[in-house]
Amino acid sequence: MITQMQKAVGGWKLLPELNLPSSSSSGPALPFARQDAMSAPPRPPVSDREFQSHLDSAGRVRDFWALKQAVFLGGLDPSLRKVAWRLLLPVFPKGSTGQERIAFMKRSAQRYFEMKRCWKETYAAGQMSQAHLALITAISKDVIRTDRGHPFYSGGNGNVATGGSMADAAESEYSPHILQLFDLLVTYAIYHPSVGYAQGMSDLASPLLVVQKDEAYAYICFCALMCRTKDNFRRESTAMLTKFQHLHDLIVHMDAELAAFLRCHGLADMFFTHRWLLLEMKREFQFDDTLRMLEVQWAGLPHLFTFPKSADGVPLQEDACIGVASPASASTSAAAAVSPPSPKDTPYLRLQSMLRQSREEASALASSGASATAAVVLKDGVVELPPPEVLGCGNPFLLFMCASMLQEHRDR
């Protein structure tokens, strides 16, 4: 993992040579866009003492770019992750003090348990919609398989593979942390009806729960993470197609020989990297290495993702669900706003169908002599890449990680 991250950082330092345009927004596009950061070698993880030096007497972060640069180059001491991840994701409003952040987490946790109580009472009363029952069943099946070998999720002998629901399970039947993961995912799906639930979300939520060690705090962090990644799970899959295109363009720009090899073997559309891009490399390393990789990746995000879009901090539910108070309305209001995607309609299957259709249409049009536009346009050369806040849908370092993985396997 360290080798691949070093290669990715090395590629990242080539940004000026890669003809990557500057951000169109004010301020530095990247936390490590300064000349001294470009030449800096990997360093030890940020310690508690160093982390505190980035805060003023009231607990405000003095310079987010300096903090993100330090994390990007060295990661965090594990003891800091619970607090620092909330800043990196990001959870809090800009300029918040330490006391304001504590108060925000307490208010948000209280709201989370109110939301959770509402849907659980709705479920117990038999008033849950069929769409949400399907979501609950899908989540029940996925969480039991998520990071199951990690000690954090050990215990219990429940089995929902035959179609049962974890919502009906006794607390002693499963590890309490598996039940917490289930509850936070169901709460998110019900109160974010335009997103719902899709395979892969449990993989993104699991490290947050392991690090936060608190169900409500993990939910808050998950909402922050999904603000940036939710488009990966939408039915139309345009965000994933954009990432495939950008990864193709990056490899063509960086490594023409590798690009030619992939094209020769019918892999240039990059569809085989779907899991890497969807889960942001979460499954590709040992769990402890994954935690470091994630925080380095978040620290490398452009300034667009430094603070929540809302001045009040990360929202815990979609606007359509605000004001839901009673158990019955918690389900019916969300369902009426937007019908959640079917859990069987997974991002992988949607993309597979889209790419298959694109290839068939392109082949048919080519046979007839007409021009065709494929889902991923294969190029012989790339002169300029998109700006950092656009490249990889705002996560350019992830593309460099993917490219370094491919180069490592090619070298073998």
UniProtKB/TrEMBL annotation:
One Pfam family cited in the UniProt record for this chain: RabGAP-TBC
CC per GO annotation: autophagosome
SMART domains: TBC
Residue ranges annotated for the Rab-GAP TBC domain, each copy included: 75-301
InterPro entries, alphabetized: Rab-GAP-TBC_dom, Rab-GAP_TBC_sf
Keywords annotated in UniProt: GTPase activation
Coiled-coil residue windows: none
GO biological process, one term: regulation of autophagosome maturation
Annotated stretches, region: Disordered: 26-50
GO terms of molecular function: GTPase activator activity
SUPFAM superfamilies the UniProt entry points to: Ypt/Rab-GAP domain of gyp1p (SSF47923)
Protein name in UniProt: Rab-GAP TBC domain-containing protein
Protein species of origin: Macrostomum lignano
